[in-house]
Structure formats: C-alpha cells, structure tokens
Amino acid sequence: xxxxxxxxxxxxxxxxxxxxxxxxxxxxxxxxxxxxxxxxxxxxxxxxxxxxxxxxxxxxxxxxxxxxxxxxxxxxxxxxxxxxxxxxxxxxxxxxxxxxxxxxxxxxxxxxxxxxxxxxxxxxxxxxxxxxxxxxxxxxxxxxxxxxxxxxxxxxxxxxxxxxxxxxxxxxxxxxxxxxxxxxxxxxxxxxxxxxxxxxxxxxxxxxxxxxxxxxxxxxxxxxxxxxxxxxxxxxxxxxxxxxxxxxxxxxxxxxxxxxxxxxxxxxxxxxxxxxxxxxxxxxxxxxxxxxxxxxxxxxxxxxxxxxxxxxxxxxxxxxxxxxxxxxxxxxxxxxxxxxxxxxxxxxxxxxxxxxxxxxxx
Length: 362
Prior knowledge:
Layout: E1 3-7, E2 12-15, H1 17-24, H2 31-34, H3 47-59, H4 77-96, H5 107-112, H6 115-128, E3 136-139, E4 145-147, E5 150-152, E6 156-160, E7 174-179, H7 186-193, H8 203-207, H9 211-214, E8 215-225, H10 229-242, E9 244-254, E10 272-280, E11 298-301, H11 314-321, E12 334-337, E13 347-350
Parallel strand pairs: 2-11, 6-13, 7-8, 7-12, 9-11, 12-13
Antiparallel strand pairs: 1-2, 3-6, 4-5, 8-10, 9-10
C-alpha cells in the first residue's frame, strides 16, 4: 500500500512511491533500488548555496554574501489563495511527519546536495534512451513477470502509440483515465536537448484527444497539471470539450526524506503540482449526484529523481472513490495516458509507456 497515513479529517495524506514500487514488484532487483532514485535528502539548491548552508550549520551563523538578498518575488495572485491553503496543510503534515520521516539532514547531506542521486539519474536516462521499447505487451497474471527485457506488474498492459492515434483502442470506454500531459516547460526543453526528454504537445492538440469517447458515463478523469495559469485554463477548456464537469483538485507537495519541502513557494518554481479531476455526467442527469473526490486533498511524498516519474495515485483513488463506482475496483477499466511506467490493473499508452519498467542493469 502506497498510503502511509490518510488523515481524512484534515484531508491530508502521506504517500510513499518507493514503498509502492517495492511491494508491487516484490522487491525485484530494479534500477530504482540500485540507484536509490528517492534519495532526496535536502531541498533543491545550487551547489554553492548548499555549501554555504553546510558551513552555516557547522559554525552556527550565516555564511555567504552579505549583500542584500533579492526580494522574493510573490507568486501569481491567482494561486496565492491555494498557497495559503497548502501552508496550513503543511503545518498539519508537520505533526504527522515524525512517524514517517527521519530527522536531519546532516551537514554532510547538505554539502553533498543530492549529488549522487543527480549523477545516477543522468546515467540511468542515458542508458534507458538507448533501449527499443516494444509496441505492446501484457501480463494477465497476478504476479510480476519479466519478458522482453521488461518487468510487468500484475494485470498490466501497454501499447506504444502516439496519442493522436487513440482510435486504435477501438470502442473501448474506461471508468478511470489518468493522464500526465507533456506540458511545455523550460526544464523539459533543456533535458530534451540532451536526449533525455520527451515530445511536448500543444494544448490544442491535447484538447482534440477523444476523451469524451474514451470515458464512460459517470467515469472520472485525473489530469496532472502545472501551476501555470495557461495550463490550468487549458484543462478547464478540455473538460468543456469532453463533456466533463470539474469535481475537485488534489495537491501533491514534494518533500525530502526528512520532510522538508524541496523548495519554497515563489514565482519561479513551486514545491507542488496539482491533479485536476473531472467526471463525465450521465445523460439526462446533469451534475446531480457527482462523486465526492475529497476536493482539496493534499498529498505529501518524496519525489522520484526522474523527471515526470509521478507518485502512484491508484491506492488513493480506490480509498476515495472506490465505493462510489458502479463496479468493484478490480473490475473497473482503467487507462493511463502519457505514462512512463506500468501500473497494476491499468492499460498504459503513450510514446514511452514502459520506459521505466526496463530491467536494464546500470
């Protein structure tokens, strides 16, 4: 179970991506264990800044430039309210933290500045992008299975295809759709130039995806989104096009192994991302009887060092809406779009659907 603790009264959950992988893959010897891709000990800093913080810890006072620090830019007004909300939830998380996170970090952790992790991830991505991904694969069993150089979780399936070709899925319709669209951003452009990124798509192309046909009446779609106003607005427009009503937003706050946020709230970069949730209304019913998705749920977890390797949401989905669906959880049809690793019980489609399931040795 990826859920370490679920405080339903305060709408706060702590999730472990690492534990999820260990349990699903039955502690198989995979690169995420060998390279420890969740070994994020300190907040994201430049190396010089990290060195100054380490020296400050050693001698007990501020080290570094005495010049007046730049005034921290305020975040866009449109998300100020949710930032205030997340700060309140972080305070609640602090009381939950001791049961799940270690104390620290040490001076050496700060000075090291996640260097080993960064080197490992760079090596891994270079290796993974030399691998040819099969066009499709499936594991119908209840056990992990290794085939074609891939490790399949139980009852998983993938198809390598461009999302512009979703017509190949035929007349299939799904109860749950999870997607992590390849939003345009500067980091991905930098990574892409080194051969480690993925193809970004225009918002209009994403809107054209036939989600209205792929989603069952009464089904739910979960969309990972950045904090850019234009991206949030795009999802709103997609929902209208797809005949979907927005029913809630979840927030993922990224923390280190010691429970610190990976960065502070600022205009340049936020320590969180959002999941926007919509439901396809049943004909003739409209917005009556929409599902309770626990709007405002805040999820705290240590992020993977691999870009766009999102934490698993399936256990939370089951905990929140499992008893509101028309069929039992394991009977539901589930589709993940733009996925990069396979999930038990899901069909994953995209250009790199099983990239992170490679049994490659690094």
